[in-house]
Amino acid sequence: MAVLQIRTLPDPVLRQKAKTVRRIDDSIQKLIDDMIDTLRADPNRAGLAATQVGVPLRIAVIEVPEHELITLINPEIIKKEGERIVQEGCLSIPGCYGEIKRAVTVKVKAKDRYGKEFRLKAEGLLAQALEQEIEHLDGILYIDHLESPEKLFKIETVQKP
Q1: 57-74 burial by CB neighbour count: b if 16+ within 10 A, else e?
Q2: Is the CB of residue 70 less than 8 Å from the CB of residue 120?
Q3: Direct distance between the N- and C-terminal alpha carbons of the chain, in angstroms, rounded to an integer
Q4: Active site residues per annotation
Q5: pLDDT per residue over 40-95, tens digit each?
Q6: Other beta carbons less than 10 A from residue 38's beta carbon
Q7: Which listed residue, 45, 56, 138, 160, has the most CB atoms within 10 A of its CB?
Q8: Is the per-residue pLDDT at 150 higher than 90?
Q9: For 115-143, what is each residue's pLDDT tens digit?
Q10: How far apart are CA 47 and CA 64, in angstroms?
Q11: Would you call the peptide bond into 10 cis, given omega within 30 degrees of 0 as the criterion?
Q12: In contact, 56 and 50? CB cutoff 8 Å
């Protein structure tokens, strides 16, 4: 297992539409394990899409407080409900966050790492993470949802003496 390099803008892989996973073999299992290690290596994370590590396949991993790790293969959002304003950041756009609209609840269908199909209804941070990671797999970044450039903010870092 390994921590993979996170791709950042303007890397073109972030704008690619990821390909459907046809077979879940050992190479896919290794990629999932490496993605989990990569996700857990950054304390300010909620999810990671395979495109963010340079692999254009429809795979994402999500781990948010109060929920177990979720692995999604070929995920798709089947329903969104409501609308709320959230502050969102992304490992592929370091040093920034934006204020955007996200759904209150989302329903998703996907396969787990063993190929078993499942459906999940989520709200709050989990819904937000699901939306963001699935959009990554379609080449969409949270900055594409900004209503104006004024809704994008730099993260101020404090230098210790």
Answers
A1: bbbbbbbbeeeeebbbbb
A2: yes
A3: 36
A4: 133
A5: 998 888 999 999 999 999 999 999 998 999 999 999 999 999 999 999 999 999 99
A6: 21
A7: 45
A8: no
A9: 999 999 999 999 999 999 999 999 999 99
A10: 8
A11: yes
A12: yes
